[in-house]
Amino acid sequence: MIVISEDVWSEGFATLAKSQTIIHEPDLWNRRDDLKGHLKEATALIVRNRTQVNEEIFAAAPKLRIVGRAGVGLDNVDLKSADAHGVVVSAALGINAVAVGELTLGLALALLRRVTELDQSTRSGGWDRKAGSEISGKTWGMLGFGATARALARLLRGFGVKVLAYDPFVKIDESFASEVNVSLVSSDEVIANSDLISLHMPATAETTKMINQATLASMRSHAVIINVGRGELIDEDALEEALVKKVIAGAALDVRATEPPKDSRFSSLSNVILTPHIAGITVESQAKINEVLVSEVERSLNGAPPQYVVGSVKEFKK
Prior knowledge:
This protein is an alpha/beta fold. The chain has helices spanning about 10-15, 30-40, 55-60, 80-85, 95-110, 115-125, 145-155, 175-180, 185-195, 215-220, 235-245, 285-300; strands spanning about 1-5, 20-25, 45, 65-70, 90, 140-145, 160-165, 180-185, 195-200, 225, 250-255, 270-275.
């Protein structure tokens, strides 16, 4: 049995359903008892980012061979518990990098050219021809330099920007650094010397609220910040204050500390763009991700080794 607890589906899963029992309930992530009931006989669980796959879930799923994550973040999957229960965790890391990079660039352009503000004004009958700013010639700082940041750096080559990046876990060769005009520096240097800053890091004890009152005060007053990493990276109280007081010029938030957010604190601010955690979600990226997930589930059924393992367990249960 295959359980899909969120909005994940494709022709590949439809084909698989002809030979396998598939329970596909997009709201199952929010019905824990029902989810655990289904998992008693399940060999595969497919999730996005809402299903909290923790010890409670693994304990309820004695036959589970694989958890497939439709996306790249692993905040909602307890890898230690997966390892303890001998469950493979698969995720198509990097497959949606171009999608994330493109949205990040689009949000930056919209912020600097005040697109959403001018759109709303014009729709209301105004004709306020406010000047925006160009990306060309600016310094773009990236906190995190994994797959999504690298995809963005490649997209920025035609804009003539200088890229500063911070990532303690990444090394880059000189040819790539030259290709995308990037310098690896400290996080303090990124924050203090960038005109645009994009966040590409996971939420950890070290990165939670790395953007706070102190770091915001260190940013250039005309700087904008774009978060396509995790909402927990930003102290939202500090960011709201900084935006209201014009400590920085603007922000684009694709991710929030709580999703969906329980408040509308940024909704009235004209220097903020809000999107509902869709940076990695395009028709193309989802097709590729679903193809990987279907393939991994098929491998778990026919005994072939998994190809996109992110945990320590490298083989499926027999």
